Structures are given as structure tokens and as C-alpha cells.
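Would you mind writing out a protein's amino acid sequence and the numbers that encode its backbone to help me picture the idea?
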Amino acid sequence: MMKRKATNLLRMLCTVLLCHLMASPLMANGDEYVIKNGERTLYGVLSKPPYQGKRQGIVILAHGFAGTHHFAYAYFDALNRLGYQAYAFDFACGSPFSRSDKNTMNMSVLDQQRQLETVIEHFRRQPDIDPKRIVLLGESQGGLVSALTAASNQKKISRLVLVFPAFCIPYHWRARYPTFDQVPDTTRLWRVPMGRQYFKEILDMDAFQLAKAYKKPVLIVHGDADQVVPYADSEKMQKLYKKATLHCIPGAGHGFNPEQQAQNLGYIIPFLQE
């Protein structure tokens, strides 16, 4: 009898937990949404505000190295409440877990920029999107990709949000491989294999000088305890950008816990309301 009661209690607790998760914005928001990119299909999730009727702005979110679209669930609800649609996708070749293409040997920063540009052009053509309110939001490598994309597409991007952006990628790898001849066929970072193309495109890149061409409002959020991407790089970019605001999250590393993510959103929300 006691065993049966314990089993029933366990089932009840699991049911309550499942209902709670299903009601959570992290799972409730977003529908699968794919975009053709040449011969490839970019898999993503589109989250819309509950109210429709007029054209809305959209925030396109770019994940970091070896990440996926799942990081964006922490942003969807807040962005929808502001009246923005939000779209996050898996970069093709951007992760072993990418639902667009898992072959990370073909990963490259500039290819990710081209993919992001494909997504931008797609949404600019959608009748329910206001093409004057397209925002890019990128984390880590996705921040670098977003910054480069915004600089090359000035008229198409209204605002730019960079969260611990990895402007360090070119000079970090240049320290390891001073010349392209020194790059092996396969390099592994966090057990993720990358081919030579990744390095061919970035070893001579000055990400700071390329990114600073963007003249519209920029928000940078970064933790001062980041051991992967130097906080000083965000300080440098704030000075290089024409209209940039930098917010520091004390004690935060390369990735935010729930409390730090709340602080992050506390900076992003008013920035998008301006």
C-alpha cells in the first residue's frame, strides 16, 4: 500500500512538473520555421506576440560557437512583450547539434554572415514585418557575426544587441596560427572539429575595424568575469562605435545564470523601447 501511494505521489509530482514546463514561455513560445539558403535549409523557431494586425519589428538572434537556436528561448517572451517577433535558427555547420547542417568542418564566420543575410532578406519580404525595425541580437561568435552583418547592411538593420561578443576570435587564432600554412587540416575547439576554411577567412581579419562601420544604436552587455572573451574588447568596441552603450554584469562569465539573464534583459528592453 505504501509503495502504491509513493508511486502515485511520484506520478502526480511528475504531472505537475510537466504541466509547469508546458506552461513555461521557454516551451510555449515559438513554432518551427525553416528558410531556404541555396541548397541548404536553415532550421529555426519563430516566436510571435499574441496580438496581430499591424506590421511588427523582428529580432533575429544568432547563437555562439557550437550553439543552437535553443539559447533564444531565454529572450523570446521579453521580446514578444515588446511587440517584436523573434527568430532564432541553427547556423548550418555551426554545431554538431545543428538541425540545419551538423558538418562543423565547413564552419566559417563569413559563411554564417551570409546565412544571417539570407534570413534578413527573407523577413524583409514578409508582409507582417516592418522592414525598418529589424534588430540583430548575437551572443559570443554570433555577436561577432551579427556585428559584421550589421556593418555590411547599414540600411537594413535598425539596432544591434551584442552579448559577450567574440571580437577576439581573429586575434586569438592568429596567436596560435600566425600564418595560414601553419593551420592543420582539422582543429578542435571544445571537441568540435573545424576545417581550414574557418581560419583562412579570419587570420587577416580586423574585426574591430570592420564592425565599427555600423553607425546606428548598439547595446553591448558583457560580464567582467568572462574567461573566454575579454571584457576589455567590449570596452574597446564601445569607443569605436558611433552610438554604443556598454553595460557590465559584475561577476558574470561567458554565459549568464537566471539572475544575470534578468539583468541582461533589463538592459535590452529599454534599449528596444527607445
Q: What stands out?
A: The first helix runs from residue 2 to 23.
